[in-house]
């Protein structure tokens, strides 16, 4: 499913990386087929919140991302940066 995955437990770092993953796919989100280049590109509002480098290659490029190093999700669901 697009909303759930088995967690990668090869080592502690891969588990942490899996937990910090962000997705624009799924119910209420985008589909791979409808996502254009402007959605997949890096937006200025991502600065300090999402890592512009860590994204998969292939059809999910730009739709799956990761939190940046010091970013966190607050209790209201917003991504905060120092």
UniProtKB/TrEMBL annotation:
Protein name in UniProt = DNA-directed RNA polymerase
> Per its UniProt record, what InterPro entries does this chain match?
DNA-dir_RNA_pol_su2, RNA_pol_Rpb2_3
Keywords carried by this UniProt record: DNA-directed RNA polymerase, Nucleotidyltransferase, Transcription, Transferase
Question: Coiled-coil ranges per the record?
Answer: none
User: Where do Polar residues bias regions lie?
Assistant: 1-14
Please report the organism this UniProt entry assigns to the protein: Mycobacterium leprae
**Looking at the record, which segments are called Disordered?**
1-30
Provide a GO CC annotation, any one.
DNA-directed RNA polymerase complex
Keyword Transferase annotated? yes
| EC number per UniProt | 2.7.7.6
Q: Where is the RNA polymerase Rpb2 domain?
A: 5-73
Q: Which GO terms describe its biological process?
A: DNA-templated transcription
> In the record, what terms sit under GO molecular function?
DNA binding; DNA-directed RNA polymerase activity; ribonucleoside binding
Is Transcription among this UniProt entry's keywords?
yes
């Amino acid at each position: 499913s697009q909303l759930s995955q088995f967690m990668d437990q090869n080592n502690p770092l891969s588990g942490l990386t899996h937990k910090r993953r962000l997705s624009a796919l799924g119910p209420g989100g985008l589909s791979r087929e409808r996502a254009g280049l402007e959605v997949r590109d890096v937006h200025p509002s991502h600065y300090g919140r999402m890592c512009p480098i860590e994204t998969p290659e292939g059809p999910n490029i730009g739709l799956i991302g990761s939190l940046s190093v010091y970013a966190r999700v607050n209790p209201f669901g917003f991504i905060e940066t120092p």
